[in-house]
Amino acid sequence: MKIAKPLLIATLLAGLTPALQGCFPVVATGVAIGVLSVTDRRTTGTQAEDESIEWKASNRIGEKFGDKVHVNATSYNRKVLLTGEVPDEQARNEIGELVAKIDNVQGIYNELQVAGISSLSARSSDTYITSKVKTRFIDAGGFSPNHVKVVTEASVVYLLGIVNDREAKAAIQVARTTAGVRKVVNVLEIVSDAEARRLDVLSGNKSQSSGEKK
């Protein structure tokens, strides 16, 4: 049976671990991951904490709710975005409170929807949309794609990251004009141009100086 190319790509991407969803390009070697790490505006310590928060959130939600819910917890700069589907408002609130109690969590964006659990095909479609948005970030230029993390749920794109105002507007424009995107939710952390440049210097990311157009 022949499989359409976009669907094949989406299906393959769907099998990747959630921890890699926010990194572009997707890599499998420690060296490449290290390169992404040093171009991230978060400190390496904060990146490690974010990974730990995601792992703890996944475990605690799984232990309490099992397969009754479908929840993705994405931590960026110690703030956690919760997306997915839950059976009722009580579960939605309980999960938000559960994750908020994890060590080092500094904020919660609870975007969980009271709805039936999404299908594999719907999740594959979301993964494909994420990949398209990230690819268009590279094509657009003007800011580093590594500064913006993309999460897609039910065709709604959530943008996380530490960016200046110009970078935020550019990322939102790219996301909202990407085919298949139903809505864009901005959860970006906006900093001044000076602060963005300071973070770039700290991370060694001098290839695209914040606030400067190429």
Architecture overview:
The chain is an alpha/beta fold and 214 residues long. The chain has helices spanning 5-14, 30-38, 44-65, 89-100, 120-140, 165-176, 193-203; strands spanning 70-76, 79-86, 107-110, 113-114, 148-153, 156-163, 183-186, 189-190. It folds into 2 domains: 1-38 and 118-214, Histidine-containing Protein, Chain: A; 49-117, Histidine-containing Protein, Chain: A. The protein contains 7 helices and 8 strands; from the N terminus they run H-H-H-E-E-H-E-E-H-E-E-H-E-E-H. Strands 1, 2, 3 and 4 form a 4-stranded mixed β-sheet that branches. Strands 5, 6, 7 and 8 form a 4-stranded mixed β-sheet that branches. Helix 1 packs across helix 5, helix 3 (44-65) runs antiparallel to helix 4 (89-100) and helix 5 (120-140) packs across helix 6. Mean pLDDT is 84; it is low at 1-36 and 206-214.
Number of domains: 2
CATH fold naming of the largest domain? Histidine-containing Protein, Chain: A
What about the largest sheet?
4 strands, mixed
E-strand count: 8
CATH class category name of the largest domain: Alpha Beta
